[in-house]
Structures are given as structure tokens and as C-alpha cells.
Amino acid sequence: MRALDGVSFEVMPGEVHALMGENGAGKSTLMKVLGGIHQPNEGRIIVSEKPVVMASPLDAKHKGIVFIHQELSLAKELTVAENIYLGELPRKRFGLVDWQTLFNQTNAILQRLKVSFDAKTKVGDLSIANQQMVEIARALTHEAKAVIFDEPTASLTDAEKVVLFEVIDALKSRGVAIIYISHRMEEIFKITDRISVLRDGQYRGTLETAKTSEEDVTQLMIGRKLDLSRNVRDHEYGEVALEVRGLCCGTLYNDVTFKVRAGEVLGFYGLVGAGRTEIAETLFGLRTPTAGQIFLDGKEVDITSPVDAISQGISLVPEDRKEQGLVLGMNCRDNMTLPQVGDLTAGPFVSDGAEIAIFDQYRDRLEIKTPSWKQLAGNLSGGNQQKIVIGKWLSMRPRVLIVDEPTRGIDVGSKSEIHNLIRDLASQGYAVIVISSEMPEVLHVSDRIVAMYSGRIMREFTSEEVTEDSLVQAISGLNGSDTRAA
After folding, report:
1. How far apart are CA 171 and CA 26, in angstroms?
2. How many whole angstroms separate alpha carbon 458 and alpha carbon 471?
3. Which residues of 389-411 are buried (b: 16+ CB within 10 A; e: fewer)?
4. pLDDT tens-digit profile of 80-97?
5. Using the 8-state DSSP alphabet, how is residue 104 labeled?
6. Which of 143, 144, 137 is closest to 119 using CA atoms?
7. Residue 436 has pLDDT above 80, yes or no
8. Of 77, 193, 197, 311, which shows the fewest CB atoms inside 10 Å?
């Protein structure tokens, strides 16, 4: 199967043009061709009405095409300035680097992005979000004709997203063509003029953003309708599996109390910094609470490490699957069996047969799409990578499964599969905690929703009583009566 098959695509000066499709549809491959990373077998690239050949990324940049990668491609031991101008450092006589010019040019760009760091900061000392801003800064070093943004907001805070959209608007006003790849529908409908869709490596059509809907785009992407309705409980809950009373962790969160039952999905929703992920990390033994109690099946437990959590029946699917959930250079089977490899030995060796049996079981159960267990995890789509991580922890037979940002960076079709999987796990008796920054997601999968603000639980809602307005008020610190479901 061809990664791209006869794709024709155009973007006009001063236009923000979205490119959408499921994981594996060919979006990133097409952009890598335009960015000089891959060479096409056939077809032409035309810039300003002239056919061009992109021999390399640097060649593409000199011809006016700038690629902001989804995956960070930074040298973490170098400064921000060196990263931004890598391969194009300003020179003085005898080839010496003109450091003053380099830092001045870089700081001028950073001021436009309204970031808190300067040109001399080492990239490795920056947060992931700020490293993404360094990637974006590269687009501003040339008079670009077209800038390709591949999932640019995946690691950005809400405030940083606003700055990014201002930068895109400024580029647009200067006549720069913007190609914007994202799975976030709200962003697509907020900033783009047109939307082109790829499916199975082929061009499927272009829509005017103002004249279409999310449903139309989704159907063009996946060829079917999705169920985007609110969650409706279709099974009974069991006993309380996990209870937390008065849990505190320094300044990160305070007096957190909640319960989750077997067969229930408890959603956690709030703004960045609300404390949701930190609570999950505490339950999994990655953080030490300063006060409070944790109960499993009515018995108080002391969790001081992930080993304790796993032995007590708690598993965590982390927020960043590529950095925290997978070894990308390892095959699917070995990733899935990694937490229990010590129990799968035959004499001094790991039993291949036992590992393959576990992988086969969860590949079938979770409908993981991969040619075989030998496929490297890094070569899978985002949705299938997430299923590998979920399968890894399900194979440990937990009582409580915590899933942090279950569909980050995943296309809408795979999102639907992950949502259905979460609901299915609850119906099988698992107690599931879902942490999400996406309101439609938390409304769709949760039986109850915990709204957090600044380290505190403001409200708890059942799926029947919650409204979007009340949820937004609660996570904003408004109308925050401390209502906790029994």
C-alpha cells in the first residue's frame, strides 16, 4: 500500500488550510515530502507557480517552506539560539560565530512569542511546552512562503495556544500560507479557512470551514458517523473499589476526597495546574502525599512506589505515552509484557511463548492493528500505541485503572475506539479514572465528573445533572460548593 497515492493539494497565500485525516492517512508523509525529508516517486511540487525539488529540509527552508514538527527535533544540550539557527549561525571573519548577532536576532523572535526564557537558555532546561515554542520560533527566522504546523498545540498551555494563534494570524496577514495539521476540531474551526481531508493515502476532498460541520469532516475522514452522545449508564456499579480521604500533596493539591466504584468511570476535569495528574501520580506511588488516606476495597493502604501500587491493583496509563508509557524502539510484545517480565521466566530466560500468549490475548481483545508482535511500538499509529499501553496494564489485572489524557494526539476515529474501550472496561467491572482536558471526552465517557480548580475539588456531578456551563464554572473557581457524591 502506498503512503500517498496521487494526492493533489493546494494552499493559497494568506490562508490557514487544515489538513486532516486519521493516523496513517498520509498527512505527515505529505508534509515530509513538502519539507524535503522524503522524496516523491512521482508528481510535482509547485511554489509561487514554479516547479521545485526539495532536496533536503534546509533546501526546503531556503525555498520558503518551514516545517514545525509534531515530534520535537531539538538538541537539548545547545542553547535556544543555537537550536533556532542550527545550520545557519551568523558568522564573522574567519568563520567564527557572531554570538552577539545570534542572541539579538533570537531574542527579537522570542519577544514576538511572549515567552519567559531568553536566547541563552539551554533547551534541556525548558519544559516540553516551552521546547515546542522553540520549534515554532524557527518558523520566524526566514521570510517563509508556507509554514507547516504539525500538531503544534499538543504540549501547549491555554495561554501559549493564544500566543501561537496570534503568531499564525500575523503570518497570515503577511501573506504566508499556513498548513495546519491537528486532531483538535475546536482549533480547526477556530483558525482555518479551508479543510482538506486524506484517507488511506488518498485525497478525499476540500471543505470551506465556515460552510461545514464537525460531523461532515469526520465522515469524510473515516467514512462513517461517530457516536458523540453523552454517556448513559447501561450497567450496575459494584462496591467501592478506591476511596481517597483528605489527600494533600504540598501546594499541588489539598483536601482531595472521592470514591470510585467497580464498574464506574470517574472523570477528572480541570484547567492545567488544577492537580489532576498529580493526584494520579500519588495514587500510583510517584508522589508522596503530605496528608490523607487511601483505601482499596475498604482497607487502608500505604503506597510509596509504583511497585506498591501495582501490587495493590492500581495501574496508570500516563499522560505522555511516548515518553512515559512506551519504549518506542522495543517491539509490541516486549512493551506489553514489560511490567511482568520477571514473572515470565523459564529457568534463567524469559519465556517467549508466555509473552506471545499475553500479547495475542490483548491484541485481539483491544483490536490492536499491527502486522505482528515484532513491529516496533514507535511505528504504530497513536491510537494503537495507546492500546499497547492500556493492554500492558490490563495484563496486570488491576482493580483500578487510571487513564491520563487517553486520546491526546489521536485522530477522531481512534478516539471513538478508545472511548468505547473505556466504557467496555467499566462494564467488565473495572474501576476506571479518566483524566482529560477535553470537555466532550469527559462528558462522553464518565458516569461522574470531578471538577478541579487550583488543587481542590470544587464539585462532583453525575452524568445526568452536569451541564457544560456548570462544569466550566466549577473549573474556573466559580459556584464552587464542595458537593461530593456518596
Report:
1. 26
2. 10
3. bbbbbbbbebbbbbbbbbbbbbb
4. 999 999 888 999 988 899
5. H
6. 137
7. yes
8. 77
